[in-house]
Each structure stands twice: as structure tokens, then as C-alpha cells.
# Entry
Amino acid sequence: MQNHTGALIFDFDGLILDTESPEVQVWDRLFTEAGGTFDHQAYLDTIGSWDNSSYEPGVFLARLMDHGATAQQLHERVRLEAAQMIAREAPLPGVESLITRAHAAGLRLAVGSSSPAAWVRGHLRRLGLIDYFATIVTFDDVSQSKPSPQIFLTVLARLGIEAKQALVLEDSHNGLLAAHRAGIRAVIVPNAVTAGQDFSLAAEVLDSLDALALERYFPL
# Structure
């Protein structure tokens, strides 16, 4: 294994683990049961950002249900039901093989996520992946989540490298914007929820992490 100063920075939700589809499925079901329609497009704008309140489906659902449940209670219900589904999931296709390839090539690995540390670290530990990452930066480590560049800039600072030495792997428009604002190249691997977002700033858009050619970005 060679030692390189290059680094791969992984997003977590929707890239390492499909945490987005289960939440959409629960919202869809609850809205349908209440006789309404879940606004997928408005929800898409919030993906990749922990504190984005541009769309709060619980507010609309509470009005539809009209039986005393608050928006906060509905959000908690959705999070709980989705979390139970996510807890049974394996990593998304290509994740483990890319980690193995990058590790063998001597690249350093990091996670830059807008989710809380307990969520990210808990799942990485469950999946047996946490020890591969030199640093894990989450929403708990910064004052602004994506699309602010803070998370990725913090990763660079912890690794002691420049933006040009890194490559971000993302699945969402907000994550891509954060990487772009941090001056880091980004490759996008959309999932069923984020497919169709604007990825024009990406170095490339792939169907799977298996398709990522590391030699295109690093002198291996």
C-alpha cells in the first residue's frame, strides 16, 4: 500500500446508507392516509442539510389529520419509523468495495455529514466501517450545515490537506454546493430520492460508487 496525501470525503446519508428513501416512504404513507399528497419536490430541497426548514411536512400533515397531533410529534413519528427501517439496511452498492480500493491505494478516508454525530457514528459502527475513516465531521462539529462549506473545510483542516488533494462523494445538490464552495472536486452518485436534482457543478455523475475510477483523480 502506497501512502498518498489524497483523501476521499464521503457524505453519509444517501451515499453510504440509504437513509432518505425510508423517510420519504413514511411521509408518503401518512399523507396518503390523511387524504393529502406529500410534496416530493419541496422535500428534495432540504436533503443534505440538517437545519433546512424551507419545507416542514409535519406542519401540513398536522392540518390534514386535524386530530391534535403536532408537527413536532409527526416529525418524531416519521423519524422513529424510518430509523427502524434503516437499522436493518446494509451499505449502498459499491461502498465497501470503494473503501477497500481506496484503502489499498493509500488514500485517506473521511466522512463529512450534515447529520448528528450519534447517528453517523452509530451506523458506521453497526456496519463495521468506522475504523476506516481518519476523521468524521458532522453537524455537531460546525455552526452551519450544507450547503455551507464548513463541514468540508473542517475535514480538510483535520486532515491537514488542501482542497485540490481531496475528492468529495455526494448524492445531493446541497452536498455538491457545499463541496463547490469549499473548492473541492465532487463526484455525485444520485439515489432514488435525489435523482433529477441539479448536478451541473459535479466532476461527474455515476450510477454507483463501483464506477468511480480513482486514478482519474489521484496519482496512484
User: Anything to note?
Assistant: The first strand starts at residue 7 and ends at 10. The CA atoms of residues 4 and 219 lie 9 Å apart. The chain has two domains: 7-18+91-216, 20-86. Residues 20-86 form one domain.
